[in-house]
Design brief:
The complex is a heterodimer of chains A (192) and B (68). Chain A is mainly α. Chain A has a single domain, classed as AhpD-like, CATH 1.20.1290.10. Chain A has eleven helices and no strands. The longest helix of chain A is centred in the last third of the chain and has 24 residues. Chain B is mainly alpha-helical and 68 residues long. In chain B, 71% of the residues lie in helices and 0% in strands. The mean pLDDT of chain B is 90. Classes of the chains: A mainly alpha (192), B mainly alpha (68). The interface between A and B is large, with 42 and 35 residues.
């Protein structure tokens, strides 16, 4: 992590919470927690609330599908930290084979057609947002994906495009396998 | 936003994986505090996210823009 203040300059409440995290998690504190806890009311609390709403709130998409969207967008942004974190959560629901297949090739991955078409749309929205048009949504609407579900996917994409940059620009160290596993378990059971 | 901080914000938006300790030290030498740098990173990151949401909403034909 590049900024000393973000690594160690937390206020008392967040400092105490950071001391508790390894006890609860059973692993060292992932760097993203230090980032989100630093001046927490400036952005951390809002990003955590947003993730909870988007990834655990009501939606046409299952939690597994939404975690796959998050992992996939992170992969398009080459954010190792977030790929590991959200692939692990998704894998606990849909299995490692499905996650690996999506990361290798969306077109041949064993997922539903609505999810596949949405992933293709999210790839373009992530990499070429200026070139996205209404026509890009035609394949999604052709398989009866509701606008509310498309909107959920768009918000997940936007949120993770922001989070991926925050994580990488802050210099968050990729998690160890123990941190990945423990974080995935906790985020799935307790939320964000 | 112009100058060295603006260039850093663009790097956050376009090539965040290439940011390193040297980029931070350059900003610090130019007089920016760690809090200012943190604020810049947050703002640039959120701007990238909002850009995607706006593009998605445009395609969806939504008239409401969350970023306004």
């Amino acid at each position: 992590m590049w900024l000393n203040r973000v690594r160690t300059g937390h206020r008392l409440k967040e400092w105490l919470m950071l001391k508790l995290v390894p006890v609860v998690l059973g692993a060292p504190v992932p760097d993203i927690v230090r980032v989100l806890f630093y001046r927490r009311d400036f952005c951390g609390v809002y990003l955590a609330t947003l993730q909870q709403r988007l990834l655990r709130g009501s939606s046409d998409w299952s939690i597994g599908e939404r975690e796959l969207f998050a992992a996939f967008v992170s992969a398009k942004n080459c954010c190792r930290f977030c790929i590991d974190a959200h692939s692990a959560i998704a894998a606990r629901i849909v299995g490692h084979e499905v996650v690996d297949a999506i990361m290798a090739d969306v077109d041949s991955a064993p997922i539903s057609e609505p999810a596949r078409r949405t992933l293709r749309f999210l790839e373009k929205l992530t990499l070429e947002p200026d070139r996205v048009t209404t026509e890009d949504l035609a394949p999604l609407r052709a398989v009866n994906i509701r606008d509310e579900a498309i909107l959920d996917a768009i918000y997940i994409c936007g949120t993770f495009c922001a989070l991926n940059r925050l994580v990488d620009a802050m210099g968050c160290t990729p998690m160890t396998p123990k941190q990945i596993d423990a974080s995935a378990k906790m985020l799935l059971e307790k939320g964000y | 936003m112009a100058g060295i901080l603006g260039a850093f914000a663009i790097k956050v938006m376009q090539n965040p994986t290439t940011i390193g300790d040297d980029n931070i030290r350059v900003l610090e030498r130019a007089g920016y505090s760690e809090d200012a740098i943190f604020g810049c990173v947050v703002a640039a990151s959120l701007a990238s996210g909002i850009e995607r949401i706006r593009a998605g909403l445009r395609a969806l034909g939504e008239t409401n823009d969350v970023a306004e």
